[in-house]
UniProtKB/TrEMBL annotation:
<dbReference type="GO" id="GO:0005506">
    <property type="term" value="F:iron ion binding"/>
</dbReference>
<protein>
    <submittedName>
        <fullName>HypC/HybG/HupF family hydrogenase formation chaperone</fullName>
    </submittedName>
</protein>
<dbReference type="InterPro" id="IPR001109">
    <property type="entry name" value="Hydrogenase_HupF/HypC"/>
</dbReference>
<dbReference type="GO" id="GO:1902670">
    <property type="term" value="F:carbon dioxide binding"/>
</dbReference>
<comment type="similarity">
    <text>Belongs to the HupF/HypC family.</text>
</comment>
<dbReference type="Pfam" id="PF01455">
    <property type="entry name" value="HupF_HypC"/>
</dbReference>
<dbReference type="GO" id="GO:0051604">
    <property type="term" value="P:protein maturation"/>
</dbReference>
Length: 76
């Protein structure tokens, strides 16, 4: 089973698609993430990340309810 967590892409680095990385914010914790599997990712996008690899981009229309749910879990 794969567990992925959503995070917001803050910045991206690299020209080569295989080595492109980004800084992703997971509710205040910022980590470096490989963006090779999500070439369409842009700064501001909400991404699904597993083991340091972005594996998907969450549609903006679907991210609003997720943002509310994630922000409601702070301090749990």
């Amino acid at each position: 089973m794969c567990l992925a967590i959503a995070g917001r892409l803050l910045s991206e680095d690299g020209e080569d698609a295989l080595f492109r990385t980004g800084r992703v914010d997971f509710g205040g914790v910022v980590k470096a993430v490989n963006l090779a599997c999500v070439p369409e990712a842009e700064v501001g996008d909400l991404l699904l990340v597993h083991a340091g690899l972005a594996i998907g981009r969450i549609d903006p229309d679907r991210s609003r309810p997720l943002d509310r749910n994630v922000s409601g879990t702070e301090g749990v």
